[in-house]
Amino acid sequence: MKAPVYSAAERAPVITIDGPSGSGKGTISQALAAHLGWHYLDSGSLYRLLAYAALQDGVALDDAAGLVALAGRLGETCRLPVAGDPAVLLDGRDVSGELRTEAAGDAASRIAALPAVRAALLDWQRCCRQTPGLVADGRDMGTVVFPTAELKIFLTASPRVRAERRYNQLKNMGKEADLEALVAEVEARDRRDSERATAPLRPAADAVIVDNSDLDEAQTLVVVLDVAHQKL
């Protein structure tokens, strides 16, 4: 996919926020980037967008070569979220809603397990490292994509709490939801993400682990900001 131009001689600081689905890393990362005035990389949207495009174009989710080719074609027609604007555009159309479904998340998790797909998207993500700095959220930002990041945070919460957050989100949208089914889906995705051979979900050895099971978004942001200001 097409990436911003970045000079290798220019070293911009990076904060990575990794964690499982439902931990709130996207919301917190965007808020942190806005607070610092830095760029923002939502790697999850990158994988969700590729999976969505594959489903639309009839590319099988286990067709690594087809997915890599599709990623190359998407570069001219998409825009990922930026700080202050979470919209994801494909061919000028906002597809954010389609990307936030359980089906899209499951599809993204499946293609993310393919080494060829991860390799194809690696340079694109690294090219997002630009001055004055970058906040990157995902599942392997601190372990694979930016292993030398100045600060690495691993944001997590219990599977049930994360499922309850999704349940409440769906109910607020007027959609039907089964809490126990969501718990099972969260646990299954956690297993798939953490047990995959390539770039498994896990905290970096030097990551600061923040468990926000008992914190709301505002409280979590306060904790993360405090960690960032101490480190940077």
List the helices and strands and how they pair.
Layout: E1 14-18, H1 25-36, E2 39-42, H2 43-57, H3 64-74, E3 78-79, E4 89-90, E5 93-94, H4 96-99, H5 102-111, H6 115-126, E6 134-138, H7 141-145, E7 151-156, H8 159-172, H9 179-195, E8 208-211, H10 217-231
Parallel strand pairs: 1-6, 1-7, 2-6, 7-8
Antiparallel strand pairs: 3-4, 4-5
Describe the structure.
The protein has 232 residues and is an alpha/beta fold. It has one domain (14-222): P-loop containing nucleotide triphosphate hydrolases (Rossmann fold, 3-Layer(aba) Sandwich), CATH 3.40.50. The chain is built from ten helices and eight strands. It has helices at 25-36, 43-57, 64-74, 96-99, 102-111, 115-126, 141-145, 159-172, 179-195, 217-231, and strands at residues 14-18, 39-42, 78-79, 89-90, 93-94, 134-138, 151-156, 208-211. The strands form two sheets. Strands 2-6-1-7-8 form a five-stranded parallel β-sheet. A hairpin with a 2-residue loop joins strand 4 and strand 5. Helix 1 (25-36) crosses helix 10. The protein is globular.
Please tell me how large the radius of gyration is. 17 Å
Q: Tally of extended strands?
A: 8
- Major sheet, described briefly? 5 strands, parallel
Tally of contiguous helical segments: 10
Instruction: Give the CATH level 1 class.
Output: Alpha Beta
- The sequence of SSEs as H and E is EHEHHEEEHHHEHEHHEH
Under the CATH scheme, the architecture is 3-Layer(aba) Sandwich
> What is the count of distinct domains?
1
Poorly predicted spans: 4-9
Query: Helix/strand/pairing class, anyone?
Result: alpha/beta
What value does the average pLDDT take? 89
